[in-house]
Protein 1
Amino acid sequence: MSVLASPYQASINGTTTIPGIARLGQHDGQIGRTILDVAGVSKRFGKHLAVDDLSLTVASGEVLGFLGPNGAGKSTTVGMILGLIQPTAGSIRIQGKDLRGQPSLVVDNVGAIIENPAFYPFLSGRDNLKAHALAVGNIPAARIDELLRLVSLTERAGDRYKTYSLGMKQRLGIASTLLTRPALVILDEPTNGLDPAGQREIREIIPRLADEGHGVLLASHMLHEVEQVSDRVLIVDRGRQVTEGCVDDLLRRGGYIEVVVPNADPALALKVIRPVPDVEGVTVDGHRLVVVAPPECGSLINRALVERGMYASAITPKHHSLEQLFLKLTGEPSVPDT
Ligand SMILES: Nc1ncnc2c1ncn2[C@@H]1O[C@H](COP(=O)(O)OP(=O)(O)OP(=O)(O)O)[C@@H](O)[C@H]1O
Ligand SMILES: [Mg+2]
């Protein structure tokens, strides 16, 4: 992995909270102003439209999960954001400025890990970070210790890089990218090739980045990874946006309520439930009724049943897992968390 570090200055100032953006509670940082604004971007490779009219934003303090099956166009989009691939159409703004003709915008504001980082095998993790800090310039020594802590490498910081596991190498790569406090951090499949423990360690770091005020774009085909650490998720398939929203909202969209009426005529229960406000549909399966309705509708359903002398033994709001939603939307299985 080579670190495409943004070698230079980028402070994260002026954070203001945008109301209405739901948080998942993975981290407590504030979501602030928009750092990245991708608007209607497309990329054509010959006849193949790899990215088709895609729009996304990332604000400071938030993690946007950029989720899609293999070949969906995630890395191509990341390449365009990094100024490495020229978009066929659309615009990319970083810190409010158009990327076209201003490649220094990426250098000044973006830290990304896209390939193998260049570290010296015989130097320790700490000395490697020092070497990177020297190359970048103006990095206080305390920042190195702070970053080693952030990526949980403090205890192994004195060991030679060549003795590090793949996960540790990856975490050192992330630390190196953060030396300059880039406003936007892009992680493209950051857990590729890592074992479950290594994957978990990376997942633990990602919310910390948002807590520190970085905006994080996490491109991944691994649903669990994205689901666990993202504030919002954008699902792409074949270059196109399929859906976008907070993880909770996406889950609620496929919501239903399971109602069990053991001692009543299910056909009558169906007749009673169907007119309840917000109920979109009811199907009967023995004494179990599947009611398509928002979860808060459960109490109204209960009251309607009681008024007709029917008593439910269970009224349970259910939702499709993000896995099911992902499958439904893209027709692709996501790679399970091993
Ligand atoms: N340089 C290129 N020339 C031609 N086609 C390309 C090029 N780069 C990518 N593609 C095609 O564009 C599509 C999107 O590829 P991309 O690598 O962006 O997908 P991805 O979502 O990152 O997939 P993965 O999960 O496998 O990393 C694919 O069909 C790919 O073959
Ligand atoms: Mg990719």
Note: The pocket of adenosine-5'-triphosphate (ligand 1) is lined by residues 45, 48, 50, 68, 70-76, 221 (CB under 6 Å).
Protein 2
Amino acid sequence: MRFSGFRVLQQALTGHKGWGALWRDPAPKPAYDIIIVGGGGHGLATAFYLAKTFGQARIAVLEKGWLGSGNIGRNTTIIRSNYLLPGNQPFYEFSMKLWETLEQEVNFNAMVSQRSIINLFHSDGQRDAYRRRGNAMHLTGAGGELLSQDQLREIVPFLNFDNARFPIKGGLRQSRAGTARHDGVAWGYARAADQLGVDLIQHCEVTGFLIEGGRVQGVQTTRGDIRAPKVGVAVAGSSSRVMERAGLRLPIESHVLQAFVSEGLKPNIPGVITFGAGHFYISQSDKGGLVFGGDIDGYNSYAQRGNLDVLQDVAQGGMALMPMIGRARLLRSWGGIMDMSMDGSPIIDRTPVEGLYLNAGWCYGGFKATPASGYAFAHLLATDRPHETATAYRLDRFHRGYVIDEKGVGAQPNLH
Ligand SMILES: Cc1cc2nc3c(=O)[nH]c(=O)nc-3n(C[C@H](O)[C@H](O)[C@H](O)COP(=O)(O)OP(=O)(O)OC[C@H]3O[C@@H](n4cnc5c(N)ncnc54)[C@H](O)[C@@H]3O)c2cc1C
């Protein structure tokens, strides 16, 4: 079934009895051409582009829980391409371009909303850094404009401009940035991949790899062995644990990141706003909830929940930026496991095991990368060559000294 406005109207008039399941629920076959481990955003996008763009067949996505149960359904939904470094900026701009046509491509309303992002600056040095970043963005056509304090006062008058400690002096805006409904993205890719014949197998945990003579032959799962000459792993926060089963130790630490949502309020916040003097970012969902977050919890963990000291830190950031947030009641909070790489940038590469490919290290910025990550990983799996925007995301770059240190904090995963 194709989704359309006409279809919604037709179903509304006939009691909504004609909607079918979004995807099939197939049993695993004994063998496939390509297995993707992990049914999050990146795994599903990879399967979709493999089938649609790269003409591959006999593909399975193996997910230990249910589709969208990981970070794809836990993030704060921000999409943007306001990066600085050559290894990153073209990739994220490629992703932004894919976001702009995604809903037509997969025929699903993922609520992609280009409502803009504003990164606030609070000092002259920070302004200069943002100007440089804005210039780098223009080189790839990502756009970006520096806003003065007066311009900001018109757009977001509720901010605490004259805070004695963190006065707001201006901001860098990317108008094409915004938000997308996170689980809608997973469902859209899943449904489209299923329609192209991809087997989406839920409740199927990969517990090991079949490796013979240094070459992958398939995977061991809770539903039996499944063979394939190519296996792509896209399990985000579980990357180290899963790859350990193939005998690989990754340059990745897992940390918790929390998200917070307030009660529903009237429309107030026009786009995404990030505080430049601390780690705090906020937007408003279409249901009215203020959606915000801050730093990772700062210790290694595989728990999908966080601690109260980070809640306090995030609340302090919010109060410094926009004191009116103190009147809002917090409705929900949750955590997700972040695959923090050593330089804060991702990995899309082959591994020392022939036929085994890795997509990981997304830290807390992988949602916006979902389309480009899926596309680039599919490109690698199908052609054995990296996509032109992802050539820097090599697994051995830490060993060779070619890190992509976007934030300039060195090999400190807890600081990215
Ligand atoms: C609170 C929070 C806020 C965030 N905010 C943003 C944001 O605003 N913008 C942004 O760009 N990014 C954000 N992120 C980061 C983003 O969500 C992640 O980087 C991205 O979703 C990770 O890729 P994924 O979607 O494939 O991961 P996931 O959805 O986690 O997918 C990985 C899947 O692998 C499965 N899996 C694990 N082990 C196995 C196994 N052994 N066998 C089979 N399956 C397995 C898991 O169950 C999971 O479903 C945020 C993350 C969190 C937690």
Note: The chain has ten helices and 19 strands.
